[in-house]
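Supplementary Methods S3. Input chains for the assembly prediction are listed below.
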Amino acid sequence: MAQKRQVRVGSQWMYARDAEKALSEALRVMNEEEGHGAPQQSFISKYVFSQDHKWIGVQYGFTALCFLLFGFFLMIMMRLQLGWPGEHFWIIGKFFHSEGALLPEQYNQLGAMHGTIMVFLAIVPLAVGAFGNYVVPLQIGAPDMAFPKLNMASYWCYLPGGLIMLASMFVLQTKGGGAQSGWTSYPPLSVIATQGQTWWLVGMIFLITSSLLGSVNFIVTIIQLRAKGMTWDRLPFFVWAQFVTSFLLLLAFPPLEAAGVLQLMDRVAGTSFFLPSGLVVSGEVLKNAGGGNPLLWQHLFWFLAHPEVYVLILPAMGIVAEVIANNTRKSLWGYRSMVGATVFLGFMSFIVWAHHMFMTGMGQVISAFFQTTTMIISIPSVIILSALFITLWGASIRFTTPMLFALAFLPMFGIGGLTGLPLGLATTDIHLHDTYYVIGHFHYVVAPGTIFAMFAGIYYWFPKVTGRKLDDTLGKIHFWGSFVCINGIFMPMFYQGLAGVSRRLFDGGIQYAHAKAAAEATNPFMSAAAIGLFIFQLPFIYNFFANVFQAMRGKLNVGANPWQATTLEWVAATSPPLGHGNFAVAPVVFRGPYDYSIPGAADDYLAQTDDGGKAPAPVVAPPHAPVVA
Amino acid sequence: MSADAHGHIEIPYTVEPRPDTGVYNGKLGVWLFLASEVMLFGALFSSLILIRTGAAEWPKGWIELHPIPATVNTFVLIASSVFVVMGWANLRLRKPQVARMWIALTLLCGFIFMGIKAYEYSLSFEHHHFPSTSNFFAIYFTMTGLHGLHVLGGMVVFTYFLTTGWKMYDHEPRRFTNRIEIVGLYWHFVDLVWIFLFPTLYLL
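Predicted structure tokens for the full assembly:
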């Protein structure tokens, strides 16, 4: 099988890079042919409890994509109900073992689980767990993460956390089902809710542990394991984004863990942290000690959940920056400003949380403070986005599939960000709070924003992971279909929200006279767009699995660096990379991450390992170097 | 840079500090972990402040709780923090047997602390004071309980190092010494949390 493999070595390559690449290719082929003699790792330690960051990244990625699809499926059921309230649907009947008409409490369950799954089980694990794990050590020239065992433990905390969340929907179907109090789990409702909420809290504690282990690992890896010459201003922007993201995860999640413990105590040990005195439930005064404060939960929750927004968006910006630099064949405009903006964004994200709470009556002084910080935090986002736009200026752009997704990210995130301004101002927020406008705003940030960036990342790094490119035609069908449909879902939400349609209504708002017309005029169209969006994911799912299976059969169709990129994961490693250890020869970095189209160079890109011909050829490792794929 | 037959690879700076950052990986890792722990306990202390300032009246800790055993516990934990430093210093001096004694003493202090804490809990339960009694007891049991879990975690790690974990000293003494330094940092933090908890709950 190995003989059939084509190894493309560009004839016009510079000598140092050429030699390095040929060496790693040769080692890989040798390794595969001769590998039978070497002792093999067991299946369990190689594929299940793996300590290789690349395989853990793949585990994270695959699991997160499954959760993404499941969260999408929950959304489809909600959209069916919203588009055609009260109608019977086969799929809803199958899911809830019912006649097919959705009950209000089932709708609440779908809403809470959709939010929780998408944020904590799909996007963050995909952005950080999958892309971060796979790409960061390769991009900084490290043999692995600093703590491979912690890395493994991180995945194995994430998976049980996710399974507990999932199980709560199915196991507890006769006891009220999964959590129903929204992804925000506001008390007192969440404290008096059915058993599913307890499972939600336990699941969250697993997920928080997972993210704690991951974030410590990322920060130490980036600080300690950078290759020789990989100084801070030679780090690819993606690594910077992951670095700041890890600090957010490290410092913002523990308060939610504290809040989760308190809520768990309220539910299990009968305490009253979040239960005020004299709370009346179903016509009876609740027999509890009282004296608690429901707002305390909101403060602790949003102290996590606002930085969490940047956890969702920063890795996405990192991916988009990599893809844009590569496909414009230009250096990122204002790299240092972007890095500075990212770090500033990280700091600021800790002092904006209460802009989610303008309606709680916390007082004008506090509102004014958080309104001001919220306006300030929009500046670094604008800097990053502007720098990316200016990078496009005058470029001869390669419209590859990853580039299309990255390009779409810019206006989509722009819409999401700009529609956030009226929500950050206390006065306008009073009108818009808890309407579909809010739903439209944050979905523009996360769905056509972050998820599109995730797709850009998948199409961009797929050849790195598998040695095969995803099909471009299917990719473009996927892109254009998704782009049209996703706007069909979210754009009308702004109109609905301005017309006063509240969120979290199981009939979409038709029972309210002021909202009826707006809801009825738009909901069926939006639901149809949601179904369209599902149909346009099918080419991607086929494309993905077809190429994975081909790659598993050993049919590779690209060389080490199919995008002609500059960063280490492409120029110092093979595609797919060597086994545990990543590099045949420890890479040495001589230049910045985006040296594209440098005048006088032989190619339109110069690898970070390119020394400009000053140093002698790299020391070639002895052919008996022990390498296990 | 490549893997051996079992997939183990050499990660740089696991033992020696990286010259330009001045730390080895584990030490940086534990400081980051402690930063997140500060946020965890910081959130709980903030909750305590918010609930207490919102309460019409707040029980007096020195009457409702048992300050004398808690004072003893404070000194037990402070002593144990000194002991673990003695253990680490003796490992640096290559006196493993002396170090082992100090670490065993640290572990013993952990047991004494947990024993006294259990005695305190039982006194509270005898007076029918439970987490559900009032928000004062809710926060008392939650915070000391979470702190107790941290002590227990430290004790598990010390037990491991005194038993099977000690073997590492024979072939990688430097790395083992680092491990004691790391668990020592964690142990100091657990001590420090108690130094804050004790006056906040019992004396103020």
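The domain at 25-203 of chain B is CATH 1.20.120.80 (Four Helix Bundle (Hemerythrin (Met), subunit A)). The helical segments of chain B are 25-54, 61-64, 67-92, 96-126, 135-162, 167-171, 173-203.
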